[in-house]
């Protein structure tokens, strides 16, 4: 083999090793990124489930608020009706005298 051939072979070997090293680095980077992706997916799933829980709690609170307002209205209506009944009873009592 000639001197140029040996030099080219050595250069090829060096470049090949550099390429293999870069390949190994990229494999490590890919594994790291896959781990990060898995972690982010887990965080996303946790956030989604938390959002769903909070939506359910919000719906429950809104329902409770609507019911409490209705109960308050019902109590007020009963109180007004009772007041009217007492006034009517007073009037009937006055008429009977």
Short description:
This protein has 97 residues and is mainly α. The protein has one helix spanning 3-96.
For this entry, give a set of tags.
97 residues
Shape: rod-shaped
Alpha carbon gap, first and last residue: 140 Å
| N to C succession of SSEs | H
Structural class: mainly alpha
The profile of the biggest β sheet is:
none
How much helicity do the residues have?
over 70%
| Unreliable stretches | none
Radius of gyration: 41 Å
Outline the secondary-structure elements.
Blueprint: H1 3-96
Describe it:
The radius of gyration is 41 Å and the shape is rod-shaped. By secondary structure, the protein is an all-alpha fold. The mean pLDDT is about 90. It has one helix at about 5-95. The chain contains one helix and no strands.
């Amino acid at each position: 083999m000639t001197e140029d051939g040996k030099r080219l072979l050595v250069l090829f070997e060096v470049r090949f090793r550099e390429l293999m090293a870069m390949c190994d680095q990229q494999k490590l980077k890919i594994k790291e990124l896959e781990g990060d992706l898995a972690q982010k997916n887990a965080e996303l799933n946790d956030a989604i489930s938390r959002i769903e829980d909070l939506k359910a709690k919000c719906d429950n609170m809104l329902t409770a608020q609507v019911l409490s307002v209705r109960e308050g209205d019902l109590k007020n209506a009963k109180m007004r009706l009772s007041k009217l009944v007492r006034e009517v009873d007073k009037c009937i009592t006055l008429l009977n005298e």
